[in-house]
Design goal:
Number of helices: 13
Structural class: mainly alpha
Number of strands: 0
Number of domains: 1
CATH superfamily: Phosphatidic acid phosphatase type 2/haloperoxidase
Strand content: under 5%
Radius of gyration: 17 Å
Helix content: 55-70%
Distance between the termini: 31 Å
CATH topology: Vanadium-containing Chloroperoxidase, domain 1
Order of helices and strands: HHHHHHHHHHHHH
CATH class: Mainly Alpha
Shape: globular
Length: 236
Amino acid sequence: MEKGYLDPAPVPAMLGLTPPPPASGSPAEARDIEGARTALALRGTPRWSLATSDADLFGPGATGALSCAAGIDIGRASTPLLDRLLRRTIADFGLSGSVAKRTYARPRPFMVNEQPSCTPDWEPMLRRDGSYPSGHSAIGFGWSMILAELLPDRAALLIARGRAFGDSRRICNAHWLSDVEEGRVTATVALARLHADPAFTADLAAARVEARSAKPPVRDCAVEAAALEPANGASK
């Protein structure tokens, strides 16, 4: 993981922002359990495949996850400045909920329902990393907010895709719905802090210029759109 823009030291105030996860036996927990149950029914579908792809944060094509929503091809070769900006913020968004993760140490869905996640090889590591809030969700939603600033005409599409990127973790049986939702909150705080960082704002300005001349996506956007149809498990 590349070094982020922000000081990686935990921000204790974030714990005050993040409420405890749903209590055992509560309606909120029942909602999480139902969300996990419906996600398991999507195994083997296009939505499951997209969720598996969204799980990869560090591969060469990771930053291209929002290309279709952005209407441009995002990647190391096509938009190197934007690609590096997004990769640097993985640490900033992903660690934004770290204090709550350690404090609450919530078990992940696959640990409770004993069904596999979409990334079984990662499960030993994930068992040691609290489920709440979702760092993946924070990253995807954070990326969508950054891209919405760069491409305001596509803001609604980008925020919707960022939300779906986080929901991919529920589809994957790696996070509960409330984990995903709270990740969006921690991402919003991280982005506010990023805007106070001169290096981030300078890189954001450079990425904005680059994005204006970027080429259209090379991904199959029709396939992605079909996978994200509500009937295929897209979050509402």
